[in-house]
């Protein structure tokens, strides 16, 4: 995103100056051949949760929701990706131990090309997304805890930022059922979520990176763009913008936000997950058939994939080892969100990429951790390798044509997707005990 000028700065120098400083500060990290990580600066508080596997208590997020579901994970803060969640596990009330879901979950890039072809930003890797972690006030983490993050390569005067919120929220009905057959009772439950988020500033924009862990096992990841429109780009005179001030003078240049997420599944503790694609074909009635029919087919994704969402298509990641109490293989379904696929670059041409794990492949594009000969972007990593440890890359695009309401401040615009449990538990993980026998053909 375009750089926000510091007060009194010379227009046009802001971005350059700040970017150069960031590059200098990053050199040590790059020389070490790895992105640096850091965690909380504060000493372990007395009330710290027990440590999750793989991290100390200070790096642990553990939340038992009032509906009985516990989420556990480790967190760290990467010098480019910002918040990284690791070793994420889910334990609904009926399970006696945590069920591991993800080895790691992180942003994989935010690519922002402008419609006039004059700007193309890579906000995670080329801007100071991670360094510009915003301090949160208690009011924007209602009922929650704001953790202190030691920001790698950050402003040495303010290395510690109170910038990681963990809190809980109600999401409305988890279910509702009126049992007219037997008890006459109405069963209903209000769903509860754990939310984990940071706000990172990039130029005029602020991105809210939100991870939502629901009590029903769903994980939703979304990026919300807010802050301000870039006023340096109120200059579209070529029909590639929208007038946002009085009359028709200030045209804000249209642009896209293409956000990538990288998910490394570790279902039931194993990285050797299987990926499946399902497609259904619906046919009009023929012959003696009374109604239209639908046929669903499964395709095993055994080699790396560049895939596209479409109606009647979905994917799931299946556990290699774990089964639920009904004997069904545990899996997580990938649930795409609304997207505008950007055809301008090879790496944005597909909605999903499934690549064989390679520890240097951390950003969908502008990935500096690999050797120089390594292919440069996620689309090129899809080259026919067999999948033994699949990594999921989701690409969600938004074409931002500004509107008058975008100032001021700009209302949050969300983009993202979710992953939902499919056969992780044998029944609804929130089933009340009175209904626990109603599994299968129970009548
Ligand atoms: Cu925008």
Automatic annotation (TrEMBL):
A Pfam entry, by short name: Cu_amine_oxid
Major enzyme class: oxidoreductase
The keyword Protein transport is annotated on this UniProt entry: no
The EC number(s) this enzyme carries: 1.4.3.-
Cofactor(s) listed: Cu cation
Cofactor note: Contains 1 topaquinone per subunit.
Protein name: Amine oxidase
Protein species of origin: Streptomyces cyanogenus
């Amino acid at each position: 995103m375009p750089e926000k000028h510091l007060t009194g700065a010379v227009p046009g120098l802001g971005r350059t100056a700040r970017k150069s400083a960031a590059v200098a500060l990053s050199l040590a990290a790059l020389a070490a051949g790895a992105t640096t990580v850091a965690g909380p600066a504060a000493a372990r508080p007395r009330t710290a949760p027990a440590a999750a596997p793989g991290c100390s208590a200070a790096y642990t997020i553990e939340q038992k929701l009032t509906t009985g579901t516990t989420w556990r994970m480790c967190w760290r803060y990467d010098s480019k990706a910002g918040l990284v969640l690791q070793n994420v596990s889910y334990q609904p009330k009926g399970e006696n131990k945590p069920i591991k879901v993800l080895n790691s979950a992180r942003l994989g890039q935010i690519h922002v090309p402008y419609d006039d072809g004059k700007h193309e930003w890579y906000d995670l890797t080329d801007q100071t997304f991670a360094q510009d972690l915003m301090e949160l006030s208690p009011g924007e983490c209602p009922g929650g805890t704001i953790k202190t993050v030691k920001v790698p390569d950050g402003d040495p005067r303010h290395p510690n930022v109170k910038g990681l919120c963990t809190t809980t929220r109600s999401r409305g009905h988890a279910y509702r059922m009126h049992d007219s057959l037997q008890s006459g009772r109405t069963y209903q439950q209000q769903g509860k979520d754990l939310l984990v988020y940071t706000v990172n500033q990039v130029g005029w924009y602020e991105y809210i990176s939100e991870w939502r862990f629901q009590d029903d096992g769903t994980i939703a990841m979304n990026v919300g763009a807010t802050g301000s429109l870039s006023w340096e780009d109120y200059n579209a005179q070529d029909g590639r913008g929208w007038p946002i001030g009085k009359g028709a003078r200030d045209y804000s240049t249209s642009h896209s936000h293409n956000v990538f997420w990288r998910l490394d599944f570790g279902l039931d503790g194993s990285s050797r997950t299987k990926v499946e694609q399902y497609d259904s074909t619906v046919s009009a009635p023929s012959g003696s058939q009374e109604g239209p029919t639908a046929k669903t087919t499964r395709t095993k994704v055994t080699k790396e994939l560049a895939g596209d969402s479409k109606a009647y298509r979905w994917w799931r990641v299946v556990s290699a080892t774990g089964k639920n109490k009904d004997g069904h293989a545990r899996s997580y379904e990938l649930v795409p969100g609304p997207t505008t696929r950007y055809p301008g670059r090879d790496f944005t041409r597909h909605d999903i990429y499934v690549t064989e794990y390679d520890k240097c492949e951390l950003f969908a594009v502008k990935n500096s951790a690999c050797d120089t000969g390594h292919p440069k972007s996620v689309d090129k990593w899809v080259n026919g390798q067999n999948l033994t440890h699949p990594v999921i890359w989701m690409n969600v695009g938004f074409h931002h044509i500004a509107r008058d309401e975008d100032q001021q401040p700009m209302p949050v615009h969300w983009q993202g997707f979710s992953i939902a449990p499919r056969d992780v538990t044998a029944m609804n993980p929130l089933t009340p005990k009175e209904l626990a026998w109603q599994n299968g053909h129970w009548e």
